[in-house]
Amino acid sequence: MKFLRFGEKGLEKPGVLDANGQIRDLSSIIKDIDGNFFEHTIFLNQQALDIDKLPIVEQKNLRIGACVADVGKFIGIGLNYIDHANETGAEIPKEPIIFNKWTSSIIGPNDDIKIPVNSVKTDWEVELGIIIGKSGSYIDIENAMEYVAGYCVVNDISEREYQLQRGGSWDKGKGCDTFGPIGPWFVTKDEINDPQNLSIWLEVDGIRYQNGTTANMIFNVPKLISYVSQFMSLHPGDIISTGTPAGVGIGQTPPLFLRPNQTLRLGIDGLGEQLQNTVDYK
User: Fold this and answer.
1) What are phi and psi of 227, to 5 degrees?
2) I need a labelling partner for 75 at 20 to 30 A (CA). Which of 103, 232, 234, 273 fits?
């Protein structure tokens, strides 16, 4: 199933897509798509949900919100595609690189991206997001998929000067306001036969810069879940953003970075598309 959240920022309601692509309102049954949702009867027994009896939501001018609410941890993985590591001149990581994206960066899939004040190197990164469905720590690779609720599209917007040239960890360039568009949908894992065989792409002003496949991940989904859980417990609603393929701005010759009044379009097979405009931070 494809679950989503819709409505004005801060007033989103839970919804689900029906077989015809119409949004159905779930707010009479559940409060929100959040950590508690994954323990709800609807999620545990989706077949019992009669979608066609739910109210249809008028989609004209409808804002789609972040597909998961109240995310506890928004975890990033760096340099996890061979082609991306090569384009940046970095060594292939021997272990996954972990960084934080602050949850305050999370926005809807089509909300504006605000270029930070004094930013000179704001960049794009389309990524597969793993949505955790149950709590765990020290998870075995063999059992890791049991902890996956589903997947979503993530745009891991990054300010490269803040990330690489301002000292300290990567975190300061990863969690600026609006740097975490997620959605449009949370897609349950049963709809994705193989998360390591998905086309993944991104365009800026109609030019396709990223055009890859999740098959090129250095560390796959089970490995990432297991590895991250060695350093922190994972909880329902946490998101792991799994890295990006080649084609980011810093990898262009010469490098290209985002400026106000540009348009980004990005997507992943089966997980939908995002569409964002860049604006000045106000």
Assistant:
1) -65, -50
2) 273
Q: Note the pLDDT tens digit of each residue in 18-71.
A: 999 999 999 999 999 999 999 887 887 887 788 999 999 999 999 999 999 999
pLDDT confidence tier of residue 169, bands split at 50, 70 and 90: confident
- What strands, in cross-sheet order, belong to the sheet with 74-78? 23-25, 13-17, 2-6, 186-188, 148-155, 126-132, 239-241, 74-78, 97-100
The domains located in the chain, with CATH, are 2-53 (no CATH), 74-280 (3.90.850.10)
Q: Tokens 């300061």, residue?
A: 172
Classify each residue of 105-128 as buried b or exposed e, where b means 16 or more C-beta atoms within 10 Å of its C-beta. bbbbbbbbbbbbeebebbbbbbbb
Residue 155 contacts residue 264 (beta carbons within 8 Å): yes
**Which residues touch 47 (CB under 8 Å, ≥6 apart)?**
none
Mode of pairing for the β-strands spanning 186-188 and 148-155: antiparallel
d(CA 153, CA 86): 23
Backbone angles phi, psi at 225, to 5 degrees: -60, -50
